[in-house]
């Protein structure tokens, strides 16, 4: 199998869209769009993110030992594109959760401290101990599937 076939196959798994953010003293806030995120454990509360070796934010997370996961809402496609480098010359304002930078309007904001890191292939997996969470129960998530942004469709009850 070639790289394109592998990427296409992985793109058939629909995911939410997140922005991973971190802050380094004297260097400001850094972030990137990612969909490689999952929960790991309920006790203790742990999540994992996967960051590519070429990503600028990789060394920033290693230095700060903290990160946030911002699960974007359906109306935040532009935010995703900014952090993916597809839109230039636009900035995003940040709020704070447990002293860490989070994106306002996200469906969920998760503040973490790095508890472990593992290099696997061309990525580093960061295990994050969750220190705080904020949830917006009203927002719908932004979805990514087969290389395109999507949104959830409301399911209508069946009537006879």
Overall description:
The chain is mainly beta. The chain has a single domain, classed as Pnp Oxidase, Chain A (Roll). 14% of the residues lie in helices and 46% in strands. It contains 3 helices and 12 strands, in the order H-E-E-E-E-E-H-E-H-E-E-E-E-E-E. The chain has helices at 3-10, 57-64, 77-83, and strands at residues 15-16, 18-24, 28-34, 37-41, 46-52, 66-71, 95-97, 100-102, 108-120, 123-135, 142-145, 148-151. The strands form 3 sheets. The protein has a 7-stranded antiparallel sheet with strand order 3-2-6-9-10-5-4. It has a 3-stranded antiparallel sheet with strand order 1-11-12, with no helix packed on it. The protein has a two-stranded antiparallel sheet with strand order 7-8. Strand 11 (142-145) and strand 12 form a beta hairpin. The radius of gyration is 16 Å and the shape is globular. The termini are far apart.
Question: How would you summarize this macromolecular structure in one to three sentences?
Answer:
The protein is mainly beta and 160 residues long. The chain is built from 3 helices and 12 strands; from the N terminus they run H-E-E-E-E-E-H-E-H-E-E-E-E-E-E.
